[in-house]
Amino acid sequence: MEAVPLTESEAEAHVRGICFKTGPPGRVGVELEWLVRDRDDPAAAVTPDRLAAALGTLGAANGDVYRGEALQAVLHDARITVEPGGQLELSSAPAGNLGELVEATCHDLTQLRAAAGRSGLELCGYGLDPLRLPERVLDLPRYQAMERFFDRTGPWGRQMMRATASVQVCLDAGEEENYADRWRLLHAIGPVLVAAFANSPLRDGRATGWRSSRQQVWSHLDPGRTRPPDSEKDPRDAWTEYALDAEVMCVRAEGTRDWTAPSGLTFREWIRSGQPRPPSTGDLDYHLTTLFPPVRPHGHLELRMIDAQPGDGWIVPAAVVTALAEDPVAAGAAEQAAEPVQHRWLDAARLGPADEVIAQASRACFDAARQALARLGVPEPIQNAVDDFTERYVLKDRCPADDLEGATSP
User: Fold this and answer.
1) Cα gap 97→114, rounded to integer Å
2) 30 with 307: CB under 8 angstroms?
3) Burial bucket for residue 110 (CB in 10 Å: 0-12, 13-18, 19+)
């Protein structure tokens, strides 16, 4: 752990320097979270030993990050991590284009699903576990401190940590002259993505009244680390202010497992007070990993608002987001279409495309994305997947939540 104290100006310069790494765009990646459940008893608890046994068949080592040479060889260097409630996350390596990403990730998921199946487990693509609130399976200082932080304001943090899953699409930040436009576009279409891919209408086996109950959970968490940054400011300025004014969740400490941060302490105040100890650049980097806005500038841009999708349904949001971001004509059409709904995050989560204005924006965005995919020369099976989703859901003002809510057994 670094020992050199950090000044406020150094912290601001550091965040500004690493949040948007600009350059020629083109790479795309995904981080796919999966709920893991017993294949024969979906409501049963899945123990850490069963997870370890499943991943061990891929040659992975036990630990917070189940990663080893054999696993990397099988999974194209994708990283497999275990989330607090036993969810599995597959983080792809950045791919040069969408076709390469889909090919590599589908191969990786085949291997991961087979490993789960050998242990009697299955990977499920829901935004929120529809049947249970799993126990926390990772007994690590980070997650102990995170749980204590969220417990101050109710049960929602435990639900988020243990029972939610998402499709996270990762894109390059863009060129220096247009990264701000890219940032603005991704926020503008955010509510459309929430609504179109809403896939979590159940909790404890009962309807919640929300198409995306995962977003309902997020809406009850600390807004200083979950809401979007100020859209009226320069993105670097907005993100730097956001990061330093967010409350500290963890204060790492050698020789103890208690990383609980003092209540109400922002990172800026931590720098100014130097208590409980002076923070370092390493502490700031760690703090940034505890911020969860809809679009997180992590050097690249990480979209975090999309519910997990069933099967290979993740391909569609990855394709739609990539097409709208990479094709200037599509970007302009989508931003214009999304303008009436760009701040309606909660309506999108609650109502989905049943809201007429959101549905209209969704149809326009999907149409722009579909035309862009053809112009970009994306492989035909990916275009077909978007067509199938559009016909099944978008043109009928539906979303995957409608299928799940009507199912007799999730």
Assistant:
1) 26
2) no
3) exposed
Separate counts of helices (H) and strands (E) for the chain:
19, 9
The pLDDT of residue 409 is 56
pLDDT tens by residue, 69-120: 555 556 777 889 899 999 999 999 999 999 999 999 999 999 999 999 999 9
On the question of pLDDT at 406 being above 80, the answer is no
User: 54-63: long-range contacts (C-beta < 8 A, 24 or more apart)?
Assistant: 54/115, 54/116, 54/118, 54/119, 54/121, 55/80, 55/115, 57/115, 57/118, 57/119, 58/111, 58/112, 58/115
Backbone angles phi, psi at 75, to 5 degrees: -105, 35
Residue 356's CB is within 10 A of a number of other CB atoms, namely 10
CATH number of 16-241+292-405: 3.30.590.20
Mean pLDDT of the chain: 93
| 117 burial level (CB within 10 Å; 0-12, 13-18, 19+) | middle
pLDDT band at 19 (very low <50, low <70, confident <90, very high): very high
Verify cis geometry, omega within 30 degrees of 0, for the bond prior to 130.
no
Q: How big is the chain by its Cα radius of gyration, in Å?
A: 21
| All structural domains of the chain with their residue ranges | 16-241+292-405
User: Residue 24 — very low, low, confident or very high, per pLDDT cuts 50/70/90?
Assistant: confident
Distance of CA 336 to the CA centre of its chain: 25
* Structure token digits, residue 22: 């600009």
Q: Which of 322, 331, 299 is nearest to 373 (CA)?
A: 322
65 - beta bridge partners? 81
Contact 74, 111 (CB under 8 A): yes
Average pLDDT over residues 39-58: 89
Q: What is the mean pLDDT of residues 363-390?
A: 98
Query: Phi and psi (nearest 5°) for 331?
Result: -60, -45
Maximal C-alpha separation, the chain: 58
The full length of the chain comes to 410
Which 8-state DSSP code applies to residue 396? G
Tell me, yes or no, if the pTM score tops 0.90.
yes
